[in-house]
Amino acid sequence: MSLRKPKNPPPWEALVLVAHYLDPKTLAMASCVSKSWSLAMSLDHVWQPLCSSRYPSLSNLKISYPAVPYHRLYAIGLTASKRRFKPPSKPRLSLDNLVFAIELSTRRAPIFTIAEPASKINNVQGNQVFKFDIDVNYLDCSPGIKALEEIKITWNVVLKGWEAVFTMIDCEGKLSSTAAVEGWFSEELPSPGCCSSDAGSGIVADLKVDFSADLKVERVSVGMLRCIDWRYVGIDDGLRYLQHFLLL
User: What is the pTM of this model?
Assistant: First the structure.
């Protein structure tokens, strides 16, 4: 059985009356039926209560810009809210693409230099956060560090194939006899290329060195923290940040 267009479409008054009982999505769909339906479903007094209840600040713009219809204000408000809460895209990088290169030295001699694929390093909390523990006990050449000795530490993230590098930490500091507590290093990371460098990224590179009783390095922990709550960022968030600097 074929559907036929009714010979007598509903009168204008009926369309306007029904429009007051429709939700925004149905109003938008009904406005596509015909020109008369579009006019009835787009009236300001139909959209004004909808716009005022959901987007009151946009609704108030009608005072300054009376020519802008309420259905248009509602539409841009809906688009803005969808963009605001749109889930981030999947990162183009993976841990398989990265190598962590870490170097620790004193004025006397180098302590250790390692370059490990990120995917093979022990990840804390089961691949949930961007924090990694690197065991350096196997490095027999690592000498002890004297109390109050100045050390230099560098952490670079290298794109696999040595195509690009991004420096996470490059700093100097001193360790006291309580090195297990004071073996922390951190530097605020620069903002991504899409933002002003003066704004800051709100992300800190974090590195902790664990020592044995005789001040030999046993383990190095690296990660990325949010400044706002000092929690480690997720793996995907860390990868999304790094791809701004490693991928062109």
Answer: 0.68
E strand map for 45-149: 98-106, 110-117, 122-123, 131-135
Q: What number of CA atoms fall less than 13 Å from residue 170's CA on the CB side?
A: 6
Sort strands 184-188 and 203-211 into parallel, antiparallel or unpaired. antiparallel
Q: Are 226 and 202 in contact, with CB atoms under 8 Å apart?
A: yes
CA distance 206 to 132: 10
Q: Residue 54: in which H helix or E strand, if any?
A: helix 44-54
CA distances (Å), origin 121, targets 19, 130, 201 = 61, 11, 26
What pLDDT digit, counting tens, does each position of 220-235 carry? Answer: 899 999 988 889 999 9
Mind listing the pLDDT tens digit for each residue in 24-51? Answer: 999 999 999 888 888 889 999 999 999 9
Region label for 162, one of left (φ > 0), alpha (ψ between -120 and 50) or beta (otherwise): left
Phi, psi of 59 (to 5 degrees): -60, -35
C-alpha–C-alpha distance, residues 116 and 111, integer Å: 16
With beta carbons less than 8 A apart as the criterion, state whether 214 and 144 touch. Answer: yes
Q: 179: pLDDT confidence band, cut at 50, 70 and 90?
A: very low
Give CA angle at 229 (247, 79), nearest 5°: 60
